[in-house]
Design goal:
about 160 residues, mainly alpha, DctQ, cell membrane
């Protein structure tokens, strides 16, 4: 069962990686095309600014998931470094609990923002703002799952880490 859950989780992280690559690629193409159009042809794509803003929001949150996965977020770990044994575990767990609480607050706020904005359409692309905001609960929920996995590994480290 644990292996199936881990494979599903790894598949989800792979999907997030592909989505991040796609959003970043489209963001670069749209912004570059708009710059070339303005500079050389004095023509601007009406929807490019809005699309690039929406893609940037998605890229930022998806990148946050991958940064959290690889322990790349900023961390005040001075107390973890100077502590040992049970104190170290207690400090790590306290930090992870705070992280989890913040992520659940962001999840709730993102879910409310998503639901409240499903009927509001963006001016140029005419897509519901709720679709744009849906990345907030998605990313915060994934980061909360990552935090729960870290908490489980802190309490019961795998054999390779315990040695």
């Amino acid at each position: 069962m644990k292996g199936i859950l881990l494979r599903g989780y790894n598949l989800l992280i792979s999907i997030v990686t592909v989505l991040l690559v796609l959003t970043t690629t489209f963001l670069i193409i749209i912004v570059f095309s708009n710059v070339i159009g303005r500079y050389f042809f004095n023509v601007s794509l009406a929807w490019a600014e809005e699309a690039s803003r929406f893609l940037f929001i998605w890229a930022a949150f998806l990148g946050g998931v991958l940064a959290h996965e690889h322990y790349e977020h900023m961390n005040l770990d001075i107390f973890v470094r100077i502590s040992h044994g049970k104190w170290r575990i207690a400090i790590i767990m306290a930090s992870q609990i705070v992280t989890l609480v913040v992520l659940l607050i962001v999840f709730r706020g993102g879910l409310i923002a998503t639901m409240d904005n499903l009927s509001w359409l963006s001016p140029a692309l005419e897509i519901p703002y709720g679709y744009v905001y849906s990345v907030i609960p998605f990313a915060s929920l994934l980061m909360a799952v990552q935090t729960l996995i870290r908490m489980a590994r802190t309490i019961n480290p795998p054999e390779s880490e315990a040695e």
